[in-house]
Amino acid sequence: MNGAPLARYEATLQGLARKDRLRTLAPRAGLDFSSNDYLGLAASRRLGDAVAAAIARGTPVGATGSRLLRGNAPEHEALEADAAAFFGADRALYFGSGYIANFALLTALPQKGDLLILDQLAHASMHEGAQAGRAEFKLAAHNDVDAVEDAITRSRAEGGIGRVWIAFESLYSMDGDRAPMENLVALADRHEAFLIVDEAHATGVCGPDGRGLAAAFKGRDNIVALHTCGKALGASGALVTGPRTLCDYLVNRCRPFIYATAPSPLMAVAAREALAMLSDEPMRRVQLHERVAFAGRQLAERCGVVPSGSQIQPFFIGDVRRTVAVAAALQARGFDIRGIRPPTVPEGTSRLRISLTLNVDEADISAMVDALVEVLASA
Ligand SMILES: Cc1ncc(COP(=O)(O)O)c(C=O)c1O
């Protein structure tokens, strides 16, 4: 093959490089200020031992098929039963990733003629699902309950009679702020709407026993939640929890669930053990919250940052080039902090995403803030 067929891809890559937006894969290095392993479970002894014991019992690595065929392993069912009990839901379904689960929910549940309103800062997987789905789809300004209500009122005035779906994150992955859950639930009640709540960054960290920010509304028949297993739970995959009818519907109509090999039974074992750890080891959550408070104080006093109050702390820089330079300088000093640029975040809001986990202690946090102060003075 001559070079021509690849030329346009090359041109795109060169264009990204010119704008400082080229992404490359790098080996992990430095102190962890970027992972989502908030509770330090990914490399924990207990999670590893649970998987090792499962292997010793003969649990297979591969699921061997779709859940609807031979792939339905007892480990998946055990995880889903525990997850339903833990999150106080009728039923739970285990997906291979949060990305797929969000895409699946938004393409399978809202129907033609329905109205889907999505927070504009919700995760890319929700945007993809909303675009690919059959419902009419509107974006609402971030965390703006009035904007959501306006979209509903406008649609009704234009003759829309379908069901309304409101999709959002409970704790935002790039801003670390929380959704106005109570107001959204009240709004949903006023309009007989469904809520799809992505708890990716709240699961394990927020709510009683780490059950998330939707835990206060458990058991309602108009809330579907997504709990990813690859962040605070230290494993991978995602649990969708909600009313039994909707979960049964997904088993019948959700193409990414039906036409995919089920996740590894070993990963189901890990996710199940992680759920047990949330209840058994509450100190992890307490320690994380202490570290979040400590970092918030340090960053506020020494860098003028407004603390997000969560384990995700954005440090806004704005300019793409400077964001990349500051992140690189911090990495060179041994701190794994990533610069987040458009299109992941809106234009002009490039930032460092400082993630706090139990993989660092207070001394590490102080050293990171020292480095940040120094780097900012020279970058
Ligand atoms: C808010 C949010 N939802 C969903 C996902 C996707 O989850 P997963 O990594 O399990 O595919 C992510 C991952 O970055 C996320 O941040």
Describe, in plain words, how this protein is organized in 3D.
- The protein is α/β, with parallel strands linked by helices and 379 residues long.
- The chain folds into two domains: 112 residues, Alpha-Beta Complex (Aspartate Aminotransferase, domain 1); 222 residues, Aspartate Aminotransferase, domain 2 (3-Layer(aba) Sandwich).
- The protein has 13 helices and twelve strands.
- The strands form three sheets. It has a seven-stranded mixed β-sheet, sandwiched between helices. A three-stranded antiparallel β-sheet has the order 9-12-11, with helices on one face. The chain has a two-stranded parallel sheet with strand order 1-10.
- Helix 7 links the parallel strand 5 and strand 6.
- Helix 3 packs parallel to helix 10 and helix 11 packs parallel to helix 13.
- The radius of gyration is 21 Å and the shape is globular.
- The chain starts with a helix and ends with a helix.
- The model has no long low-confidence stretch (mean pLDDT 97).
- Keywords: Pyridoxal phosphate, Transferase.
- InterPro entries: Aminotransferase_I/II_large, AON_synthase_class-II, PyrdxlP-dep_Trfase, PyrdxlP-dep_Trfase_major, PyrdxlP-dep_Trfase_small.
- Its cofactor is pyridoxal 5'-phosphate.
